[in-house]
Amino acid sequence: MSIKKVAKLAGVSTATVSRYLNSPEQVKEKTRNKVQAAIRETGYAPNSLARNFRRGKTSLIVVVLPAVGDPFLDKVMRGIWRVADEQGYSILIRDTQANSHEFDEYTDLVFSKQADGILLLASISPFDEAASNRDNERAHPPLVLGLESVSAELSHFPSVRVDNIAAAMDGTDYLIQLGHQRIGFIAGKRDSLLTKDREKGYRKAMRQAKLAVSNDWIVEGEQTIDGARRATRRLLDLEQRPTAIFCANDEMALGAMHEIKNAGLKVPRDISVIGFDDIRYAEIADPPLTTISQPAEEIGERSMRRLCQAIDGSDGDSAPEMLPHNLIVRKSTGKAPG
Amino acid sequence: MSIKKVAKLAGVSTATVSRYLNSPEQVKEKTRNKVQAAIRETGYAPNSLARNFRRGKTSLIVVVLPAVGDPFLDKVMRGIWRVADEQGYSILIRDTQANSHEFDEYTDLVFSKQADGILLLASISPFDEAASNRDNERAHPPLVLGLESVSAELSHFPSVRVDNIAAAMDGTDYLIQLGHQRIGFIAGKRDSLLTKDREKGYRKAMRQAKLAVSNDWIVEGEQTIDGARRATRRLLDLEQRPTAIFCANDEMALGAMHEIKNAGLKVPRDISVIGFDDIRYAEIADPPLTTISQPAEEIGERSMRRLCQAIDGSDGDSAPEMLPHNLIVRKSTGKAPG
DNA sequence: TTGTAAGCGTTATCAA
DNA sequence: TTGATAACGCTTACAA
Questions:
Q1: Which of A203, A242, B221, B256 is most buried when burial is the number of CB atoms within 10 A of its CB?
Q2: CATH fold for domain B58-162+296-322
Q3: Which CA distances in Å does A102 have to A152, A169, A251, A298?
Q4: Of A209-218, B145-154, B311-320, which gets the smallest average pLDDT?
């Protein structure tokens, strides 16, 4: 009833008030002033529930991410927010740590009009149906994948990321150049495609260098500090322990370094450690962590732009957009011992 | 038009479909089956835009926090999410780093029906008007303050937090017990009441111990690693440098430790460092960081519960809810040198 | 137990 | 440039 009140007070129709709100230039100045006064007097605020309903748009974007509190997301979110602000979207965050991992649970947010689109920054399990329904409208919600590598079922969605395989190869090559031959790998969660790709890159680089990879050298770090610490202990307990460890992300690398030092060993003298992501704690780690950086803010920005395009149907090609990574050499890596 | 389609297909009225959706027990089983079949066949998903509009409720809560990517928020958000899930709310996140800091900008989200309530986990500047309008309806949106200390203008809102003053006193007392007399303090941002309170606690403890506090010992660390590094350098450059540094949070403590070690000094041999929050990186810092922990998950949970109460009007008293803090002694603090 | 129909606040179409 | 009015999809009295 609210716009009506304003209209009545201003002595105009509701249509005019609405126009004043949405395209003031269509309203004569004199009328505009009347409406403005009425709005001020009533303290009227447009009911966005009604507005959204009428427009069929929520102006909400769901960003699905692994965990709030992940320092890497800091910059990514900054990029996302910049574009969201510019385009008039609000951000709804879903954390896969606290929520479900089902693809359909997120796409339903779009189909039920709770959100206009989805920005997926985490690995989730697409329903098998999704693949078969590919031509179905339900399989094509506005959705963009950022950061994450893409499973086959999701490959028809736009995606923005670095080439995790190539990046991990670069990191591994660097260790190999330093003379390391026994290189361990601390992997992420089993369902994370991104860390799987990094593992692939590691394996590929080892293979190309004709270096054997023992199964014992690849341990799961669960993408947490504690998981990485346990993984590191297993690596250290090996009869022939690795002289270098590649961690699928910095969070785990930090845990690994701590555990290595705890065991009375020195980084990089005894063991070199390399991470991935270049989170802000990498630089101030002791020793400062060698890592691979991603253009986080740009990934956020670009994936959000792609999503806006997907929402208003102007999305062009769906080829993955690859951004460059960058090896950052610090002090946690050194020549292989002996 | 969608519920109509379903109704038509099922051969019932739209009211029956609606009832099936909202209170199935009121629908005869036979009818229920028909409706269910129709829903399945059409792939119907209720339009929550229309539903929210009709109900006058968004089921959205805005959580205003300083920065996604702050590891401390990890646990807080977990607590919030647990309650939100349970109560059927979705979480809309606003980051003051990327967004405005104005109180009204957030409360407008409620008045314009974009959200049902606000959980404030960050210091923002309330409009001066807010205080004078206190009796006005507009001054009383459902809003709860979590973590943060409360400015006078906001003191009529419920609040859940630790006693930052007392906690900082405990930390400072501990340093004093270790024999430290020249204790520096790295403060947070100027507008952060929470870190201001911690500074107050530090000052109070110093005063009670009859220890002088030089103005040079209190430097601003901007609540970032880099800010803390700059602040630390200033402290180290002092003619008589402090033998201990209290940092208003762990993030800054990590930066401080790095800078101290960079200067060729040892923690805690030359300088003790103590932080606040007990983020997950504190334990694996080198040396592991002595800090004060807050019951983060519980703060999240309780503040969210209070908010739910505020939304449905069942909120009782508005006295701040204080939770206990806990001094965690690790290796970054030791006896004063000399 | 089910159907009819009004109404939520806004926007958009059309006519004036 | 403005006004009257239908429509958006759903819920909920109220009536049947």
A1: B256
A2: Rossmann fold (3.40.50)
A3: 16, 31, 25, 27
A4: B311-320
